Amino acid sequence: MDWTSAQLRSLVEMTRRGTVTAVAEALGYTPGGVSQQLNALERAAGTPLLRRVGRRVELTDAGLALAAHAERILDIGADAVAALERTNRTVSGTLNVGLFATAAAEILPLALTGISTEHPELIVQSREMVVDDVHDAVAAGAVDLALGLDYPDMPIPHDPALRQLRLLTERFGLAVPEHTLTGVREISLAHTGELGWILPDLETHYGQAILAVCRRAGIEPDVRHQVTDTAASLALVEAGVGTTPVTDLMLRLRPSRFRVLALTEHFERHIVVIVRAAAQNRPTVAALVEILRELVNGK
Length: 299
Known about the structure:
Layout: H1 5-17, H2 20-27, H3 31-45, E1 50-53, E2 56-59, H4 61-86, E3 93-99, H5 101-106, H6 108-118, E4 122-128, H7 134-140, E5 145-150, E6 162-171, E7 173-176, E8 186-187, E9 196-199, H8 205-216, E10 222-226, H9 230-238, E11 244-246, H10 248-251, E12 259-263, E13 268-276, H11 283-296
Parallel strand pairs: 3-4, 3-5, 8-12, 9-10
Antiparallel strand pairs: 1-2, 5-13, 6-13, 7-11, 7-12
Helix pairs in contact: 1-2, 1-3, 1-4, 2-3, 6-11
């Protein structure tokens, strides 16, 4: 049967997400584009793969049967790509990379410089994403690999199709306005009850991790401002309106005048590379991962 990897990927994502709109968001298509892929796949299969149930779309028995094999077909395709790459004398080709805003600002420029020096025939294309979406983007095949974050206090659910490679572990401190808690260098979260907090959406993995650490210390943070952008959060601390957790990488986003207190509680995050298990041995992927490792190790 004559079908494409994009069509099979759309079908696999339909089993995971349940709606054309959600599949489109995961793959970076329009909903109309996803519908076209699925319609073309039905024509190639010669049998209905989807049926409408009210406003939703469900897979037929044939659709479920094909979806069960589609993941394996896609993995075989990834193995074939890796085999072809290994026949090249140089590391060459194109990699699509997803990454969150801090990584885009602080890690990507150095990584691209390293790639252009060591592997000039390797083209890296990047796409900034909401950090909680990068795992899904790799799983969906929307990007080849991604830079993401994981929190020991609220770890990302394990996906057996993915591999998560740790690059760097950062410990959080607490950014406080310049004239707050003067003379204090280290603080327990248990003693921050009177401080207003600047935090991201508490439904995100980051927000959930912060809540877990605070509750373990016996406090519920008084959230005055919910802000996703790190630079904006730091600007608010500088303006004296609240406190927010920070790491060294986050501090490099915006020169600011405030104080950073060490936390007695152990609160950290891992910067990770996420890649599909079937793709981790591709020479292009391995080359970029090695460049990233060199960067974070200060080589």
